[in-house]
Amino acid sequence: MLAAAGVTHLVNPKPYDRIVPRALPGSPRTYTYVSGVVELALAAGLVHPRTRRAAGLASAGFFAAVFPANVKMAIDWRHAPPARRAIAYGRLPLQLPLVLWGLRVARAGSPRV
């Protein structure tokens, strides 16, 4: 999942640019590219047993850190058609299981889902 998200951030950055909170300094595209590279690095770290614990912790932190972008998306899409609104609102509660998964991987040292 992280690798696929990382690739889409780099290949098709425009949708991600739109959800970067405006309060952040700099270009939204920079945040999009950096988050894509981070996702790829986290995915690689989860694959290797020697880096799995650190990558699990970093993944949990990453999923918590990107929550404001999901909140912005939900606010921006509050008047969108129902399907888009459902996607935006559905991303919000998804963050908690992702954070918990990262922590579980860090404790167990394996990427079991």
From TrEMBL:
Taxonomic classification? Bacteria, Bacillati, Actinomycetota, Actinomycetes, Micromonosporales
Organism per entry: Dactylosporangium siamense
- This protein is called Membrane protein
Q: Which domain of life is it from?
A: Bacteria
